[in-house]
Amino acid sequence: MSTGLSELEILRRNALTQLRELGIDPYPPEGYEINTNAADILANYENNKEAYQKVSFAGRIMTRRIMGSAAFVEIQDSTGRIQVYLKRDELCPEEDKTLYNTVFKKLLDLGDFIGIKGYVFTTQTGEISVHVTEFKLLAKSLKPLPIVKRDEDGNIFDGFTDPELRYRQRYVDLTVNPDFKQIFITRSKVINTMRAYFDEQGWMEVETPILQAIHGGAAARPFNTHHNTLDMPLYLRIANELYLKRLIVAGFDGVYEFGKMFRNEGMDRTHNPEFTSMEIYVAYKDYIWMMGMVEACLEKVALATHGSPIVKVGEHEINFAGPYEKLTMYESIQKYTGIDVSAMTEEQLKETCKSLNIEVDPSMGRGKLVDELFSEKVEANLIQPTYITDYPIEMTPLAKKHRSSEGLVERFELFVMGKEIGNAYTELNDPIDQKERFEDQLKLAARGDDEAMAMDDDFIRALEYGMPPTSGLGIGIDRLVMLMTNQSTIQEVLFFPQMRPEKKAKITTDEDFVNAGIPAEWVQVIRKMGFNTVEDLAGANANKVFNDLGGMRKKLKLELAMPSKEDVTAWFS
């Protein structure tokens, strides 16, 4: 008995051994010729039947119905499922029927990858199918796939639905829940549409460092690492802004990058420590111009993914066609709280936050207090695309001072469905002003603000060589995809979201089972029933275990005295 393996896993490993004994490699090294796929056959066969008389494709066995010398099987490839038909005497015209009777019927399992050659036909019930003339095992599946059951209307009522398992085992999730693939197809379409739009404008896609000596470009806590050869600390980037601006200094008129950012912060429905951002910087532009560019870009994204600028998100219909509503930061707070904070001092802001039951701490400067007030009282109200503009200077160390309003900077954030998805500035290109802003950030860090920016002397030096007027924008790709796919959690739009360490199952010995009250002669039967730990057994239903024991006793032809129902119930006490 292999400890830790269920009965089905043991049976599949036995089948693996038997296949090899028959001279069949369950993991052949050579490629398999494919000239079509499930979606192509189903979409085009009726209009061009002659083209599908010699088809070759491959996929997983998902269901099968064996009727003696014939069988129907559903094969799933990357495009969908299609039914195939196998007939023993056609696959095995000679006397030896091993390929069908043994290999197909006994040694293949649901989840195995096989290659199919044959011709397409329509069954008597009108279903387009493939008549198999040849099949080949391409990969043996050693773990059984979860069985997803559907009712007559196609609704799933017993499937692989636990989010913890789905996110951790995305390879299983997308196999048995293929509808979720559309989320990631849409994600790819979002990025490709944005990239095509930028390229049409003549802006260049670039790559900047992920490992950085100084964390900058955003207010966030970084991940720390160490380079052994250089013997120096490094940080995973929290933003790529300062490097992209260096390229504007270098003479590029427009640069953009789709890239991973890393922030050592909390995790929730809209935050993952590793996320994808698009940042773009265009010379000789300002944040007012950038608003129009964002509206044009996002309308293209909505049209590419939905065929309309209007996208259904939850109970709302979000219109991505511009122009979007515009509110200054102070206007938005006054609109939703009735309080004018524009002229308040830091102490007055603290008292205002306390009166609204917003937590404050000594490390918070004026900018942080305004940000907390806005986050708590305004954000949730911003459903349709809305620009929040003209932020207090303390909140934005990298943006240019407002051209007409003292104490503000030229910045906007784009909010949709109560969440920020874009952030843009008229970029600060005055090196003296920029150095003073960095110095203010150092003071906040000294007060305990671990999200304050560090001094970046090389970036100051770059600005001293001269950077033309520039507008920059960052868009959170994951949140944008959430909107375009009507998903409420960021984990749904990431192939592999960050997860807590998987709890390893405790190894249970036969002695552990015996100590729990199970007679020694029944321990291996319990294991064959799939209970590999005492905890697994304790979580089961006592009546069902009793009935299943009787079934296993009969199936395995065991000459053991059947324990009484009372004895089995005692195992669970």
From TrEMBL:
One of its GO terms (cellular component) is cytosol. Residues 187-501 form the Aminoacyl-transfer RNA synthetases class-II family profile domain. Mg(2+) 2 binds at E420. Binds 3 Mg(2+) ions per subunit. Its cofactor is Mg(2+). The keyword Ribosomal protein does not apply. Its EC number is 6.1.1.6. Homodimer. This is Lysine--tRNA ligase. GO terms for molecular function: ATP binding; lysine-tRNA ligase activity; magnesium ion binding; tRNA binding. HAMAP family: Lys_tRNA_synth_class2 (MF_00252). InterPro entries: Aa-tRNA-synt_II (IPR004364), aa-tRNA-synth_II (IPR006195), aa-tRNA-synth_II/BPL/LPL (IPR045864), Lys-tRNA-ligase_II (IPR002313), Lys-tRNA-ligase_II_N (IPR044136), Lys-tRNA-synth_II_C (IPR018149), NA-bd_OB-fold (IPR012340), NA-bd_OB_tRNA (IPR004365). Keywords: Aminoacyl-tRNA synthetase, ATP-binding, Cytoplasm, Ligase, Magnesium, Metal-binding, Nucleotide-binding, Protein biosynthesis. PANTHER family: LYSINE--TRNA LIGASE, CHLOROPLASTIC_MITOCHONDRIAL, LYSYL-TRNA SYNTHETASE. It catalyses: tRNA(Lys) + L-lysine + ATP = L-lysyl-tRNA(Lys) + AMP + diphosphate. Mg(2+) 1 binds at E413, E420. Belongs to the class-II aminoacyl-tRNA synthetase family. GO terms for biological process: lysyl-tRNA aminoacylation. It is found in: Cytoplasm. PROSITE patterns: AA_TRNA_LIGASE_II.
